[in-house]
Amino acid sequence: MRVGDAMTREVCVVRPDHTIEDAARMMLAVDAGLLPVGTEDRLVGMITDRDIAVRAIAEGKGPETAVREVMTQEVKYCFVDEDTAHVAKNMGEQQLRRLPVIDRDKRLVGILSLADVASHEADGRRVGNAYRDIAQPGGEHNQGAEERGKGM
Prior knowledge:
Elements: H1 3-6, H2 20-30, E1 34-39, E2 42-48, H3 49-56, E3 78-79, H4 84-94, E4 98-102, E5 108-113, H5 114-119, H6 125-134, H7 143-150
Parallel strand pairs: 3-4
Antiparallel strand pairs: 1-2, 4-5
C-alpha cells in the first residue's frame, strides 16, 4: 500500500513566526503532540509538545518565543508515493511514530502515523515490529542520553 492511501491529509501547520503559545493552543485544538512548521506549503521544521517543554519552558523562554527558536529543523519525512511497509520499517529504525508526508515537489501533503499504517494493514506485524524498534533505548530524542551529556 502507498503512503498516500493511509496518511492523514488534514494537517494543521504552524508558521515559524507563530509563538510557542500559538503552537500549544493549536496542538490542544487538534489533540496532537506535534505540528509541522511551514511557510505556505513548504515544510521547514517540526515542533512537539516536548520541544516546548524542554527547549523553551525549561530554558526560561516565555510564551511569546517564536516557534523557529525551538523547532526541530532537520526533519525526517516520507514521500506520498512510497510503500507503507518500507516507511514503517524506517520509522522503527529511526524511532519515530509520525512522519510528515511530502510530494515529489517537496510540498507537505499529510502526516503518516504508525496508527494510520495499522488501520490499513491486514496483519499488525509491520507496525508491531516498528513499535518494538521504537521502544528500544537510544535514539536522538532519548532523554537519558541528553541527561548523561549534562552530567546530571
